[in-house]
Every structure is written in structure tokens, then in C-alpha cells.
Amino acid sequence: MSVLGLGAMGKALAGAFLDRGHPTTVWNRTAGRADALVARGARRADTPAEAMAASPVTVVCLLDDAAVRETLGPAAGALAGRALVNLTNGTPEQARAMAGWAAGQGVDYVDGGIMAVPPMIGQDGALILYSGSREAFGAHERTLGALGSAVYLDEDPGRAALYDLALLSAMYGMFGGFFHALAMTGSEKVPAAEFTPMVVGWLNAMIAGLPAMAAAIDSGDHSAADSNVEMQAVSYVNLLDASRAQGVGTELVEPMGALLHRAVAEGLGAGAVSSLVGLLRTDPARR
Ligand code: FVH
Fold first, then answer.
1. Is the pLDDT of residue 78 over 80?
2. Nearest by Cα to 62 from 75, 43, 78
3. 150 has which bridge partners?
4. Integer Cα distance of 136 and 53 in angstroms
5. What is the average pLDDT across 165-176?
6. Cα(27) to centroid of ligand 1, in Å?
7. Are 97 and 171 in contact (CB under 8 A)?
8. What integer pLDDT is reported at residue 282 of this predicted model?
9. What is the pLDDT of residue 284?
10. Ligand 1 mean position, distance from CA 6 (Å)
11. 152: which residues sit within 8 A by CB, 6+ positions away?
12. What is the CA radius of gyration of the chain?
């Protein structure tokens, strides 16, 4: 196994391969970041091409797509006949473009999304999503299993990035609501640690309702509304007014209020909030 990129995540990935006994070659732009892994038994490569030539499969985990292109471009020849697993965060379009570039080099390409933070890598609970070459994933699935639960999604190389970014969007939505909630209670000097257990309990209660919302979204039937859109649009104004009165900025929560009011204006007021998903889809061809 070869690993390109030894930032916080790349170090964790290379460390997990070493922990499972896989011979591991590592490269990083700033060479000194490889020292601790070399001390644990990794082989240091001086160039990306040398790292890639050392193994049948290379995992790349760099800051972004531009860094990947900058790193792989000059080393393209070293990859022919090998597999490339790109775990760098990126868009579906970037993943598809990389797959096209890799195909031109005779490389089997797998794109991936890491649903874990570095300390979780190699532990229960780490989920890594993959898409792209089914053959390459199958050939290296056991080795990739060192990183966490390996889930293959689709031959479309963009699918893992789509799921990754969608899951991050759910996470940031939760963070945004949490941060706003703490700013509100903090405006009255309630300690965050005191209020947070109540947030956790409330969010867990709401999470239990997500599968029913998903069923409504798939069927298009939003009629089962114990908490209809119009009622929520009215009470949401209180959330915004109270925030302003408490000296709390509303930038994290205003968009949801605007969407609720648009739903009412478009005649969806009597139904469930699951109808809001349809309002977000701006491309008629993708509805
Ligand atoms: N850390 C996390 O919590 C998340 C979890 C989910 C997945 N993400 C994604 O993983 C990619 C790498 O993230 P990271 O945490 O390792 O990031 P850094 O610690 O900032 O390390 C960045 C590495 O990228 C190298 N690098 C940056 N620009 C270039 C370039 N132009 N050419 C070559 N290498 C480049 C950097 O090298 P250096 O600064 O040490 O020389 C690091 O190795 C990322 O896509 C996350 O979104 C992490």
C-alpha cells in the first residue's frame, strides 16, 4: 500500500495500514511529516512517482482536488496498470474528471469519502464510502478494510463524493442549529455544558422521525402533518424575533424561515415539512 498525503487524515490512514501489518510506502510534500510513520516501519518515498511505483494500489488524501492534480500530474506514468484510491474531499464532477484522467493513464480509479475524523480511522464506527471501478475495489477491499467499514456504492465515480457532501450537509445543519441554540441560551449566561444534554435528547427524538420523512419524500405524499408547514412558519418568526432581541445573529437560521414561508406561499402550508425538499431542487430535469 502507498499513501500520498500525510496531513492529519493521511497519517491516520497510513498508521492504520501499518497497524494491520500492510507494508506501507508514504510520501508527503513536506517530507518531515513522514518521520513518525517511518519510525513505525513505513518506507519513505522521495517523490509521488516513487511511492506509486512501490505498490499495486495508492491511496491519495490531500487537501483538495487541485493538490491531487498537482501531485499526480507529473507522476502519471508511474500509475499505469495500478489502482488509485482518491480519498480527498471533492465534488462528484471532480471525481468523474479524475476517473477520466486515470482511465487515460491506464489506471483503475476508485473515489472515496471518509465519514470519520482521524482518531476514528481503523476503529469501529469509521465509515469509508467508495465508488468507481468495481474491479479495483473488489481486489483491494480487504486491505481498505484496515481503515474502517468499507461500503461500495456505485460504478459512477461521483457517487461517493455526492454521499459524502450530502452527509456533511446534514452534519453542518446540525452544527448550525446547535451553535445558534447555544448563542441564544448563552445570551442569558446559561453555560453551554448545562444546556447541551437537553439538545442531545431533543435531536435524538427528532432523528427518530427522519425515516418517516424519507418515506414521504420518496412517495411525494406530505399529507400526514401533525406539525404542518403553516404552523411552523408562524412559530419560526418567534425564533428569529427572540434571537434578535437577545442580541444573537440570525444568519444560520434565516434560510429555513424563508423556505417555510415560500412553502406556504406555494400552497404547501397544510402539509408536512418534508415537502421543503422539493422546493430545494432547482433543476427540473433532476426532480
Ligand atoms: N481531518 C478531518 O477531520 C477530515 C475527515 C474527513 C476527510 N477529510 C478530508 O481529508 C483530506 C485531507 O485532510 P487532512 O485532515 O489530512 O488535511 P491537512 O491536515 O490540512 O493536510 C493536508 C494535506 O494536503 C497536502 N497538500 C496541500 N496542498 C498540497 C499541494 N498543493 N501539493 C501537495 N500536497 C498538498 C499537505 O501537505 P503538506 O502541507 O504537509 O506539505 C497535507 O499532507 C481533505 O480533503 C479533507 O477534506 C479530513
1. no
2. 75
3. 128
4. 17
5. 98
6. 13
7. no
8. 87
9. 74
10. 7
11. 130, 131, 134, 137, 141
12. 23
The 3-state secondary structure of the chain, one letter per residue: CEEECCCHHHHHHHHHHHHCCCCCEEECCCHHHHHHHHHCCCEECCCHHHHHHCCCEEEECCCCHHHHHHHHHHHHHHHCCCEEEECCCCCHHHHHHHHHHHHHCCCEEEEEEEECCHHHCCCCCCEEEEEECHHHHHHHHHHHCCCCEEEEEECCCCHHHHHHHHHHHHHHHHHHHHHHHHHHHHCCCCCHHHHHHHHHHHHHHHHCCHHHHHHHHHHCCCCCCCCCHHHHHHHHHHHHHHHHHCCCCCCCCHHHHHHHHHHHHCCCCCCCHHHHHHHHCCCHHHC
Q: Ligand 1 site: residues with CB under 6 angstroms?
A: 5-10, 28-30, 33, 61-64, 67, 70-71, 88-89, 114, 117-118
| Contact predicate 105/131, CB 8 Å | no
Among candidates 41, 50, 39, 36, which has minimal Cα distance to 6? 36
